Amino acid sequence: MGVICMIFYAHSTTDASKQDWQTLAGHLFAVARLASMFAAVFGGERAAWLAGILHDIGKYLLEFQRRLEGARDSVDHATPGAVVVSGLLMTKPEDRLLVQILAYAIAGHHGGLPDWLGMGNGRGLKDRLAECDISRLAPQWRDEIPLEAVDLLPANFTPDKQVPGFQLAFLGRMLFSTLVDADFKDTEAFYGRIDGTTADRQWPALRDCLAGLRQRFDDHMAAFDRTPQADSEVNTLRRTILSHVRERAALPAGVFTLTVPTGGGKTLASLGFALDHAASHEHRRIIYAIPFTSIIDQTAAIFRKVLGDEVVLEHHSALDEPTIIGREAKDKLRLAMADWAAPVIVTTTVQLFESLFANRPSRCRKLHNIAGSIIILDEAQTLPLGLLKPSVLALKELARNYGCTIVLCTATQPALDQQDYPADALMGLEVAGRELAPDPVQLAQRLRRVRFHDAGVLSDEQLCDHLAEVAQGLVIVNGRRHALDMFELGGKKGLEGMVHLTTRQCAAHRRQILADVHDRLHMGQPCRVVATSLIEAGVDVDFPRVWRAEAGLDQIAQAAGRCNREGLRPTDDSVVSIFQPAEAPPLKAFAPLIAAFRHVAALHQDWLSPAAIRAYFQEVYWQKGDGLDAEQILTAFRIDRSGVDFAYRSVAERFRMISTALVPVIIPFDARADEAIKKLSVAEIPSGMLARELQAYIVQVPDRDRGRLIENGHVAFVAPDLRGQQFPVLQTPKLYETTIGLRWEDADYLGDSFF
């Protein structure tokens, strides 16, 4: 039989007759249609269709067809499509750029978006294109695959002449997202039909349930207004803030600030705004990004209580990047990757921004679903300084060309008004006149509930002595080791009600601890908490006294929000003491932040005024200078007369919001965790579903320490044949202590001598 008469296939089954195999043309057309549909929200339909129709034409190689029949030779089926698309003759300059960008997406749809030039991290796209011989493709592909390549740039795309490379690389990543998600979904649907299974979850569209969600929100707020505490001064002010914020929801989409002092109810105010704003502008989803994994479960729980569990997806970073054993499509289906199709997403800032600069299919798959969303950045000031400039440009691009509304939600608003920067600084957002809160200056004055005290240098012994003088107090330090040392010292000194709260504990455990803390505070029982900074971000606790290790002004302001939070005590009696730890000097990275705080504190009597906070961030940003793009992300995407030179892979490796390599360990903390761990051995249950169930049981540890835990048998990957190295589970329960959490430092101890 001649090649011209062959039937070419994309995916195989165990049926030797091939009656139920997926034809290649069928797969290509299906992926093209899906990708085009996904890209419609930002006008990228034509480009996405072209990527979809060409992404697998390498499967027209006879050796790939033999591989489907059982041959084991490796076949590069991604590069041929990249060669074809990059070689298309285009008349418009912008279309010539777009086909080059699509070559990255097609070539990377399995292994990830490549760099143009290959160096230590593998071959670059330039070499791959040069080495690929598409004459070896069966000529049948030209008859089966039509090419429609014209007007590829989105019609309403607004260019930025200062950063054209960054812009088009961003577009390329968005188009890549539509391609890999479409490829995954069509492959998933094919094998689902063969196996009689369906995807693990179907989400409702926000537009279809928005009226009901707004009603649920109104009902929730109305129920609170009937509680005894509703008429307190603080809660009356919270209602005023919420009402004002919702009144501004009809303003044009774009970038907003929401500047509300800690305890002012900004979480629910921002959610109320998002629901109303989505109704006015038909946004597709609401994405709430939180800087710390330690409190994501708390915020997600609030949203579920208000809106219902069926619309909220809680998505951490920890279990996203499995090491896949076996690259066949059916194996990959067992590793379901979140696509952010839910109406409401609660995620981490790390997950959001690292995905926006990622190159791997698993991280990029969700990106097209960010388009047309309302993105609320909780504690917006926590964006890392070394990545601030590319992060701000990404937000600007989402608002400008992808239909997003961005809300910078914080008590300590960073100085990100573009009017504060020179035109060529590539910094700042269009936020002038876009404040949602009523008069932030007056709010800061009305919500001032503490006074500050400079305590100077304090040893751990002295801190414990101060704690002994009060029945209820909170000490916040800058590191997990210091928190543990303080907790153990307090125990040795016999302090009653000592509580340890850090990310050594999994989220499910911390929920229990915080519930106990709330009960102790409410009942007036002894409660002396030693915590890391995780307690500062959204944790609703109210102490009469707080001690805070010296840090940046934004963190000091957050610490102040845990003292006299409800305003029920006299301000003069509600003291936040700032101290310099004698035994735990700050890390080098803290030094410029502390210096900026000291400088501003000397000039401003009210440390929490918007003017002081703005001056603090201006000082920090000025000190950092070119270090606001420390990884040189912006220079990694270049366009010149020779074409497009993008370093997608290198940027993904460099764009790390958390510099220390932390990796997850799953803790069998309770019966629910035990049950989810057992399900890991059940092949029919998707990994994505199990990852969601296990998110609350993760402790992040240094990579090196987890390696030692694994080496000594204390941690093991469960069901690696099904899940790869995605689910590392603690095997030695005694390493996880009820009052402390995980002692990963004890990984080298073995046997009964340790226990």
Brief sketch in words of this structure:
The protein is α/β, with parallel strands linked by helices.
Description:
The structure is a single chain. A six-stranded parallel β-sheet has the order 3-8-7-4-6-5, with helices on both faces. The chain has a six-stranded parallel β-sheet with strand order 9-14-13-10-12-11, sandwiched between helices. Strands 1-2 form a two-stranded antiparallel ribbon. The model is unreliable at 321-337 and 750-755 (pLDDT under 50). Helix 16 links the parallel strand 7 (373-378) and strand 8 (405-410). The protein is globular, with a radius of gyration of 27 Å. With 755 residues, the chain is an alpha/beta fold. Helix content is 42%, strand content 13%. It starts with 8 loop residues before the first strand and ends in a 13-residue tail after the last strand.
